[in-house]
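SAMPLE LOG
Freezer: B-3
Tube label: C17
Construct: single chain, 178 aa
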Amino acid sequence: MNVPQMTKSEVLKRIASLRITDAVMVIGIRGYFKDTMGVPGQNDRGIYDDAMFIVTPDSFKAYNGNTDPSKSKESIAVLQPGIYHYKKGMHGVSGPHPYMALRQDSNVTIKRDGSNELETDSPENRFWIDIHRGGYTTTSSLGCQTIHPDQWCNFRDFVFEAMEKHDQHRVPYILIEA
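STRUCTURE (predicted):
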């Protein structure tokens, strides 16, 4: 699997107008591999054709990710480009094997399959669009942002360590289109 090849300066240039000042950031680029994976020119679902980057003042890492639901299905949530905040937390708390991931910690904006209407959640009614480990046979997303399973532990450990080093309790996640 080819890891995204953008440099730190290229990624920072893409988000410069957003004026984010946090030391640690996670950037997702939807459709990064849309011309080299899946159907050419299309951002496919169910494959890791998106890029995820962790940027800190002294380091930079790239990962294969997925920013779309695994399948097209009426009413499934698709996170819209924007700036959202995440914190360390348990993902999959209603299942038998919850694990530490990045948990939604701000309002997010989605568009549901089959609708052109944007929806924004609230602290009282979260959509829980987390950033978590994907699977080998599926990207394991019902609207979440997922990282390829071979890269997940490195991604999680790196971002958690960077957050601690820079005393950040939340990390901005910036989702942009390729």
